[in-house]
Specification:
By secondary structure, this protein is α+β, with helices and mostly antiparallel strands. 34% of the residues lie in helices and 21% in strands. It has three domains: 47 residues; 41 residues, no CATH class; 79 residues, Immunoglobulin-like (Sandwich). The radius of gyration is 23 Å and the shape is flat. The protein starts with a helix and ends with a strand.
Length: 200
């Protein structure tokens, strides 16, 4: 069986070339093709791990070992902060490292809704909406789109400040679209970003 190294190099080149804002659109691949190339590359790299002696059980076991070690470290850090204070597990110092101090019964407040999403920019080639940063209190982003005269529909989700407008289905060819994103958490959606107009 021939090595796929050359194909993998070409796949990475196709992805990086399409993402380069300094290159003309005519020399770039479509967003759909880039997604397919990215998916193939991920599968190829996963297959290499197995082909080189790895197994699914081994990979899962190693992941679990690392996860359990991380949980142990987090617990040790929390214990250190609690033991260094007369307020034990209610010390406000825990909040400074992103941990929740224990609160008395009835004092817990519900999670706030995400802050406003801010100003989104649109990459017409990659079909991506980008925010300067994730909105405060947001667990993830949800992208929306609306064809002129139509109803708003969810277009994709993201755990980063970059959301796809074609994550669920392609844009309607030839139609004008309005695109925006919102921050989402367990309470619901926060205020939307600015709306971007795009003609597919």
């Amino acid at each position: 069986m021939k090595s796929t190294a050359r194909l993998e190099d070409l796949a990475r080149l196709a992805i990086s070339t399409t993402a380069d804002p300094n290159l003309p659109a005519a020399g770039k691949y479509s967003a759909t093709l880039v997604t397919r190339i990215t998916n193939w590359l991920g599968k190829a790299e996963g297959a290499q791990v197995l082909a080189n002696g790895g197994s699914r059980q081994t990979i899962i076991r190693e992941r679990n070992i690392v996860r359990d070690l991380l949980l142990l470290v987090i617990a040790s850090i929390r214990f250190f902060y609690c033991s260094a204070s007369d307020e034990t597990d209610q010390t406000p110092e825990l909040a400074k490292i992103g941990m929740q101090p224990r609160r008395d019964r009835g004092e817990a407040q519900p999670q706030p809704l995400p802050d406003a999403a801010g100003a989104a920019t649109w990459d017409a080639v990659a079909r991506l909406l980008t925010l300067p940063a994730m909105p405060e209190h947001a667990s993830f982003l949800r992208a929306y789109r609306k064809v002129t005269g139509g109803e708003a529909e969810a277009a994709g989700v993201s755990n980063s400040p970059v959301g796809s407008a074609v994550g669920y289905s392609p844009l309607t060819p030839g139609a004008a679209h309005e695109l925006w994103v919102v921050g989402v958490n367990s309470r619901g959606e926060g205020p939307a970003s600015n709306k971007v107009s795009f003609h597919a």
